[in-house]
Every structure is written in structure tokens, then in C-alpha cells.
Specification:
This protein has about 325 residues and is α/β, with parallel strands linked by helices. The protein has ten helices and 14 strands. The strands form three sheets. Strands 5-6-7-3-8-9-14 form a seven-stranded mixed β-sheet, with helices on both faces. It has a four-stranded antiparallel β-sheet with strand order 11-12-10-13, with helices on one face. Strands 2-1-4 form a three-stranded antiparallel β-sheet, covered by helices on one side. Bound molecules: adenosine-5'-diphosphate (ADP).
Length: about 325
């Protein structure tokens, strides 16, 4: 599996984007995105509404043509026959035929997919106690999601792209579907990318995170590495005075409340004793980057593309 030109090496990366961009008329949807996603990860694609998540997923699924840059999915161009058969994409509206029964829906999956795994698809449906003779139109949102996921996993994809899979589910159904996703991904080694505008929906499931804001990558990498790369520091702030210095650390965001200043930093060396130090959670880190568009993005070593021409969007996490 070693060697830069072999197919095996290409498969190390489920997705590789180099300067990727897409515009709709004048509107920027995705701009200058350079990152890569290691195969075998469960990745949360997060960011506010309109950040470009669906556009990025659509490009990876081969449904949206990039306007700039290059995108590789499982080592090849998205949308080609070889990539399509190894990728499953579940769009937000989970398109299923309402008048079909569950059994008919699975049979359709079988007819459309040469590598169909009926055992996996039926297991997913049965573990949700969904009768095979029920019509799709009579199912709850959670049950419909389960059938859609059964169709997606029955295809035995190497890469599963899910656009807001939890959006219309109640917390109980979301929890159940989340567990199902993790179990199937672990058993089949599927790489999963799931978008959400709510970090909480995906944070507990994902070992990798790509955060977009305004079409750009703001954070990308292993959640553990992203967490350990940041500190939340609090110090005294004299009224009217300038805030205490935070150099040489990288400042992501700082806020003054009364006589206190709180800052999210990427530490470079020890933090001065005048600061009280805490470890931020993912939500605090993500919000810090979203509120501070000027703060430099952070891509961990595994997420950075080794491309001298690629824009230097971030820096290597320690
Ligand atoms: P997200 O999935 O993060 O909510 P999208 O990728 O859907 O973001 O949208 C990114 C931007 O591109 C938004 O400003 C959106 O209005 C615009 N956009 C997306 N799809 C289209 C389209 N088909 N036509 C025109 N504008 C679009």
C-alpha cells in the first residue's frame, strides 16, 4: 500500500480536494477548498446553513461539476463509473417511492446495484422492526431514514455521503440512526461523510471533522487533534486598558466581559501564569472560528494536501 503512484496509495484518501471551487452565477458556494479525508474515517461536515456543505457533497457524488480546482474520490474523478459504484449518496430529501413497500424498495436496490448485499440491507430494516410489507408512505421519518440507509449500505459502498441525515429526526430516532451508522461503518470499514448544521448531531459519532464557513475550510482533521490543539484562556482585563498580550500563541477569538478577557488560542509553548487555562470542547472551538472569519484556518497533518501549488489555508497542528 506504499508508493505515490499505486492505486493502493490513492485509496488511502477517500476525498482529496485541491483548490476546489464552485459558483452559482455570482454567488460563491465553495471556494479554494484544499483538504483530504483519510479512508476509514467517520467525518462530520459541519458549518452554518449556506456554508457549502451540500455543494461539496454533490461534487463528491459526481452530481455537481466543480467550477475550479480538482477533486478526487477514492483516488479517481467523481462521477465516473468506477467511482459511482463504490460511492453511495443520500441527499437531504431521502428520495424513496411512497407507494412502494419496503420489500419492493429493497428489490429495486438489488436490481440497480450489481454488488448488492441483501443480508446487510435486510438486517438494517429488521433491526428497526420495520415490516417488509409496509408502504414507504406510511413510515415515520426515522423509519424512512432507516430504509434509505439500508439502500445505501446494501450497495456496499466504500464511501457513504450523507446530507443532513439527522435533520428531520426526533432525538430518539437520531440517536438510533447514529448508532446504526457507527455499527455498520465499523463492520464494513465504510468511510462516512455526514453533513449537519448542528455540530451536536455529529460530534459524538465522528472521529474526523471538516468545518466549512462561507465556502471555505476553517477546520479539518481528527477531532482529538483539533481538540488538543486549542486552549481557552481567561485573564484579568483592566477597565480601559488594552487586553493582556497573547503572543506568541495564535489567537482565534477573544472576548471581553466586564473585567475578564477570554480567548481561544492555539498555544505555541507554555501559557503565562496570569491566565487561567481550560480545555475547550468542539462546539466552543467551532463557534470561535465561525465568529472570527479572519482567524487562520487549521488543518491537521493528515488533512493537508501535499501540493506546493495549493493555497496555504492553514498550518500543521502540533
Ligand atoms: P449548505 O449545504 O452548507 O447549507 P449549500 O451548498 O446548499 O450550503 O449552498 C452554498 C451556497 O450556494 C448558498 O449561498 C446557496 O444559496 C448557494 N446554492 C446552492 N445550490 C445552488 C443552486 N442550485 N443554485 C443557486 N445557488 C445555489
Amino acid at each position: 500500500m506504499v508508493g505515490t503512484m499505486s492505486a493502493g496509495a490513492a485509496h488511502r484518501w477517500a476525498i482529496e480536494a485541491h483548490g476546489l471551487g464552485k459558483r452559482y452565477r455570482r454567488r460563491r458556494a465553495v471556494e479554494d477548498c484544499s483538504f483530504r479525508l483519510p479512508a476509514g474515517t467517520v467525518c462530520g461536515l459541519v458549518g452554518p446553513n449556506g456554508a457549502g456543505k451540500s455543494t461539496l457533497l454533490g461534487m463528491a457524488a459526481g452530481l455537481v461539476r466543480p467550477g475550479a480546482g480538482e477533486l478526487r474520490v477514492l483516488g479517481a474523478a467523481p462521477g465516473t463509473a468506477g467511482t459511482l459504484s463504490r460511492t453511495a449518496f443520500l441527499p437531504q430529501d431521502k428520495p424513496l417511492f411512497a407507494t412502494f413497500t419496503v420489500a419492493e424498495t429493497l428489490r429495486l436496490g438489488e436490481e440497480l446495484n450489481p454488488r448488492w448485499d441483501a443480508r446487510v440491507a435486510e438486517r438494517i430494516v429488521r433491526s428497526g422492526k420495520i415490516p417488509l410489507d409496509a408502504r414507504i408512505g406510511t413510515l415515520s421519518g426515522g423509519q424512512r431514514s432507516r430504509v434509505a440507509l439500508a439502500l445505501a449500505f446494501g450497495k456496499r459502498p466504500e464511501l457513504l455521503l450523507l446530507d443532513e441525515p439527522m435533520a428531520d429526526l426526533d432525538p430518539l430516532a437520531a440517536h438510533e440512526i447514529g448508532g446504526l451508522l457507527m455499527a455498520e461503518a465499523a463492520e464494513q470499514g465504510t468511510t462516512i461523510v455526514m453533513s449537519s448544521h448542528r455540530l451536536a448531531d455529529v460530534a459524538t459519532m465522528c472521529d474526523y471533522l471538516v468545518a466549512l464557513a462561507d465556502g471555505r475550510v476553517r477546520l479539518a482533521g481528527e477531532t482529538d487533534t483539533l481538540l488538543s490543539a486549542h486552549l481557552l484562556v481567561t485573564g484579568a482585563h483592566a477597565a480601559g486598558g488594552s487586553p493582556p498580550r497573547l503572543a506568541p500563541h495564535t489567537l482565534v477569538e477573544s472576548r471581553v466581559t466586564g473585567r475578564q478577557v477570554t480567548a481561544l488560542i492555539r498555544p505555541r509553548g507554555p501559557v503565562g501564569e496570569e491566565w487561567r487555562v481550560a480545555e475547550p470542547d468542539l462546539e466552543e472551538i467551532l463557534l470561535g472560528y465561525l465568529r472570527s472569519p479572519a482567524a487562520p484556518s487549521l488543518l491537521t497533518t493528515s488533512a493537508r494536501v501535499d501540493d506546493a501549488d495549493a493555497p496555504t489555508e492553514g498550518e500543521t497542528a502540533a
